[in-house]
Design goal:
Length: about 120
């Protein structure tokens, strides 16, 4: 049975990512940068996905180019070690959760993006 998050609208969770970051003095633009780095969406593509209210499954399945460096994302988020998540879609979701968590904890953007382009 598929996890409920897979069919949840990405647009319904996106404001929570932004709010988490903003509570810690970070910005929506930084959240968008992380999402674009992870998924390969450009700004317009991300906006289209949000407007279409696609679910998490579709959001990741139609991502232009998942970043190869995402395998460098390690650590625990929501009590789960992200690198040990076996189910591919859940691992992608946890990667995003971990990146937003690092942003909210004040980590430098270059480190969050694993030394990649901003």
């Amino acid at each position: 049975m598929a996890h409920r998050i897979y069919t949840t609208s990405f647009a319904s969770v996106y404001p929570l990512y932004v709010a988490k970051a903003e509570r810690k003095g970070r910005t929506k633009d930084e959240v968008d940068t992380i999402i674009r780095w992870l998924t390969g969406y450009d700004e317009a593509g991300l906006e289209r996905q949000l407007a279409a209210e696609v679910n998490f499954d579709t959001f990741f399945a139609t991502a232009p180019k998942m970043n190869e460096d995402r395998a460098l994302i390690k650590g625990v988020v929501c009590g789960v070690r992200v690198e040990n998540v076996e189910e591919p879609l859940m691992r992608e979701i946890r990667y995003l959760d971990k990146l937003v968590d690092e942003l909210a904890k004040g980590k430098a953007m270059a480190k969050i993006l694993r030394g990649g382009e901003q």
